Known about the structure:
Mean pLDDT of chain B: 85
Largest sheet of chain A: 5 strands, parallel
Number of strands of chain B: 23
Number of domains of chain A: 1
Oligomer: heterodimer
Low-confidence stretches of chain B: none
Shape of chain B: rod-shaped
Number of helices of chain B: 14
CATH architecture of the largest domain in chain B: 2-Layer Sandwich
Distance between the termini of chain A: 17 Å
CATH class of chain A: Alpha Beta
CATH superfamily of the largest domain in chain B: GAF domain
Helix content of chain B: 25-40%
CATH topology of chain A: Rossmann fold
CATH topology of the largest domain in chain B: Beta-Lactamase
Strand content of chain A: 15-25%
Mean pLDDT of chain A: 90
Shape of chain A: globular
Strand order of the largest sheet of chain A: 2-1-3-4-5
Number of helices of chain A: 5
Radius of gyration of chain B: 58 Å
Strand content of chain B: 25-35%
Radius of gyration of chain A: 13 Å
Amino acid sequence: MSKVVLLIDDNPIDLMINEKTIERYDSSITIHKAASGKEALEMLGNGSVKPNCILLDIKMPVMNGFEFLDELDKLEIEKNFGIHMLSSSIDPSDLRESDEREIVKSYIEKPLSIDKLTKIEA
Amino acid sequence: MLGNIRREYCAVLDSNQDFLYQNIAFKQLMKVYEVQNFESLALSDLIQRFEGAAFLPYWQDAIDEVSPENPRVEFSYYLDLGETRARIQAEIQAVYEDSELLYLAIGMDEVTDIYLKHRFEKLKSNFLTRAIQVSDEDELMWVLVDEMLSKLYFEDALVLKRKGDLLIPVAAHGNQRKGEKGVKSLVKVPINIGVTGRVATTGEAYLTGNCAEDEYYISRYFNAGSEVAVPIFLRGKVFGVINCESQQLDFFRPIHQELLTKAAEILQHRMEEMNSRAELIKLEQRHLAIINSTPNSFLLFDKEFRLMSYNTSAKKAWSYFSEIDLKEGAPQEEVIPESLRKVFGEMGQMSLQGEHKQEFLSWHRKGQSYHLKLSFAPAQNPDGEIFGFTMLVEDDTELFNANQALREKNSNLERSNKELDKFVYSISHDLRAPLSSIMGLVNLIENSQHLPETKIYGKMLQDATESMDSYIRNILEYSRNKRMDIEMVKVNVKDLLSEAHGKFRFIPGYRELKFETNLQVKTIVSDPYRLEIILNNLITNAIKYRDVRKPESWCKVEVSELEDYWQIIIADNGVGIPPEKHPQLFDMFFKVKSEDPGSGLGLYILKEVVDNLNGKAEVCSELKKGTTFTILLPKEGMHE
């Protein structure tokens, strides 16, 4: 089964770092990148991307990670994917809110590494 | 006309000594003596009738004794009445006109023990009636003398008060009296001397029928035949002595001692009453002093909600706050202002059920706001029965205001704590974001085999590092501006600008911008550090927000001198700011577009710095045309 990952991050450097890291972890994984929540919603909404896993940044302009989750809730698609928050925030309120969202599987502190990806898989 | 005869047995005779008038007692006496037709008798007939009687010579002597010079004669004698012996106190008064006898009044009292007792009871009520009206101890002694001792047929009487080891005469009757209210001899008697002294020391009454043979008797004023003395007690101690002397032997009988003792008791009761009343008044005054010393208002209401009592503070407060003149007995409508009546009614009712209640309210008067605390409590008598309730009004304004200030401070502190938290977390995120990028890139480089790829990573590392550097600088500027004192010195503007340019060289896009400088003054007087922050911020913004679609980007810096201000204008032809964003431009963490690079702190810090210098910052911007910032800095620093 081929794996599909959607990366959502406003910072192009981070987007690239995440992409490269996943490639090195498992080159068979298909990677999609979205520079904003809005872009990601479009990809999911029109069915162009059907991920198994989403890595979601929190601090993003216009629509932050949690606002994206609210919008995703309204989207009428099959949500057979896990979401992992990926952020450099250490604000306890961000951790708490992530914990409260059912769809969120874990909270990963940036930067992404192969070790951290292994933990998600497990 | 008849003189002033007040005796039990009275009669009036004319100049021929024929009876004109006899009172009922006299008539009855005549019947007892079986004198027939006494109405038509003359005195001489009566005298004849009692021929040989022992008392007759006393009467004859007295009749002979009266004269125009001496119209009144008093005399006494003993009458043997079977087993008892009665003393007769008699008198004759003659009325003359031009030395011619007109009338003769005769009268007598039969001073038997029973009569004395009877008289004493009558005198007692007279004494008490008058005693109630006096509040002075010495005055009371005189009432005793006037209303009792002088009317019990004593020749004299002396009331003495004990003071330490002495007995001091305070009131007197008969021989001892001088004028209206004087004592003939004010000689103090040591308590170990004489009959009086003995009574004072032992606290026991003493009677002697024959002074000459008595071991305690000491002659003071005259050689007395007999003497009686009784102690006056007050709270279990001898307060004084009543002493009576008579020239006659055996004048005093046990009845005299008994009556005097009774008189002393009545005196004692009255004095105790007076003292306890005085003490009660003292106690009341003490309580009043306490209650009136408080600035709080105390009011006492009865079960019908009528005002029973109040302190002076209540009187003042009511008059000041509601222009109500408090009066005892006033119904609640005349005491409690309309707006409080409901609360008052409820609280009062609960207090009458035995509950203690408190209520807080504000009261406005003459533009001032007062915070009052009302406490209601049941008022109980010693048996625990509730007879009303008290209302205590405390002015809580100061405490309330202090609490209010504290609450405000607290909420300010909480707010600034929250702001600080928000600030710290936001900063930590923004600092960690480029750092995590750097770490991620380093991870990639570590595992990379391709040189070109590594070069790209290196370029990215540089960008991330610079972004972090500028961020850290911003924070430092913010905190230094807050902390550092303002230092006004002469600043060379040209030098400052070229220094700034040195730093900007490494900012991406710097080379794409054409700078124009128009300096109308060489130096300005301001704080150089803060001036640098202002210039750095605005020029960096001009670089960052240049419009890349335009063929040429420029930034103009103009420094000039106005009357009261130094004016710095930094204008660009960059992307511009939409007008709806202008009001928030200087807010913390505000970015025109969320995707804009930077922390959203730059203009916030700029505003803080300008405010700190007591200056003004204005922005004029049009979307896609460009932005102009005008900074006005006062020539006179605020600290001068």
